[in-house]
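Need residues for this backbone.
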């Protein structure tokens, strides 16, 4: 059984991430989507909230063979812990490539067995990023076509509180 690991900040999950998840599920028997803990970023949502959004979105779409989890520390250690054969990363545009290429090679340097597979989301998601979603929502813009419903509602609540 081939297990794939899709790591990320998912702060919050976008429909672009969901599109990558769907594509990975079409290739692998089992997919673990793992939220990275303790990143040096100021996150908007807690790890638990981010996991709930992912779980809800995948349940709503009736995805099978998926586990939502989290990891601390290095990705290569998470790969071992989850017994994964491959790391999945989404590539939206050429601009993503440079950093992703560097990360993939560094991870393989740290663990020669750590292979990375890049999946391209559908073009309508090529400009969607969690950072932009947070910013648009903060200023009251409509993000409903870019993120799952539970995220839309949670962002509305957060921006309401900040008014
Ligand atoms: O969604 P993101 O923010 O692009 O995800 C980046 C993430 C979390 C996958 C990456 O930063 C990561 O793997 N962090 C764990 C720490 C680590 O292993 N760093 C070395 C990677 S070269």
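Answer:
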């Amino acid at each position: 059984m081939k297990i794939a690991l899709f790591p990320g900040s998912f702060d919050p999950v976008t429909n672009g991430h969901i599109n990558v998840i769907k594509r990975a599920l079409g290739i692998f028997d089992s997919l673990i989507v793992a939220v990275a803990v303790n990143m040096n970023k100021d996150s908007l949502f807690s790890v638990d909230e981010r996991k709930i959004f992912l779980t809800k979105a995948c349940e709503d779409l009736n995805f099978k063979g998926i586990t939502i989890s989290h990891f601390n520390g290095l990705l290569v250690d998470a790969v071992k812990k989850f017994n994964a054969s491959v790391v999945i990363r989404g590539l939206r545009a050429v601009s993503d490539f440079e950093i992703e290429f560097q990360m993939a090679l560094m991870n393989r340097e740290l663990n020669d067995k750590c292979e990375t597979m890049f999946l391209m989301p559908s073009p309508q998601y090529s400009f969607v990023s969690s950072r932009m979603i947070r910013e648009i929502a903060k200023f009251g813009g409509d993000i409903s076509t870019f993120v799952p419903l539970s995220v839309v509602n949670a962002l509305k609540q957060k921006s309401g509180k900040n008014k």
